[in-house]
Write a structure and sequence with these properties.
135 residues; M1 Pyruvate Kinase, Domain 3; 28% strand; three-stranded antiparallel sheet; 3 helices; alpha+beta; 16% helix; five-stranded mixed sheet
Amino acid sequence: MVHHEKISSVSGLGLEADRYSMGLGSWVKEIKPGDHELTLIESEQLAWLQRETGQELTHRMSRRNLLTKGVDLNALVGVRFLIGDVEVEGMRLCEPCKTLQQQTGLDLLPAMVGRSGLNCCIHTGGVIRVGDPVG
């Protein structure tokens, strides 16, 4: 995972140089088109995990593309919304899996079910910047 202050997003593809846009993601053969173009996770859920279980799952460890604050991602399933000027749609919850648990060495299941973020498709590409509003 590499931090970017800004990154280009492409409708139907994903984020520039992201593993899924390059066809290299863990689930690339099993996902529906548009399902992994962009993934988000709430900073509040990462804090909840640490508070409730004592385990620290960082944004980078979560392998989600964007970290949000103050946004109820679960409420955005099936909803079109903006990240800055980029229009996206929440496709489904991005649930934790055994692969993530093995890669992090953390006991994430079942604690993070329903708390692990949102998979989105990108409808209108553009540049996403750190600090862009989500909504």
